[in-house]
Amino acid sequence: MTDPVEETLRLIQSKPEGILQSELWKELGVDSRKCSRIVKKLEDAGIIERSEFKKDGIKTFLLRAKKMPVNPSDLLAGDELIPCINCELECIVEECHPLMDWMYQLAIVQHTE
Ligand code: SF4
Question: Are residues 92 and 76 in the same domain?
């Protein structure tokens, strides 16, 4: 079962323009109270930002994921840098062999650590 906080964060992160809290709980299939508690956790952790928003005269909140600094070690599989850096290929992520090779390397490194 997916962790509801993680699921909420993923949903918010998938909307770069943000999502209204009044729509979020419906998309998650939870009640508004539970949604508020999850949103508060994420806001308190500094992962999302919440700003007041009025839709059809009703007050709600616009939720956006904060941009987090990238941990450089997340770009490495052992000492191999992710191929997307400086890539000039036409990007079709699902069909990208350099990325698949890199991810395979990453899996090996993580398995042997
Ligand atoms: S996924 Fe592949 S094609 Fe796309 S940027 Fe990364 S390496 Fe380049």
Answer: yes
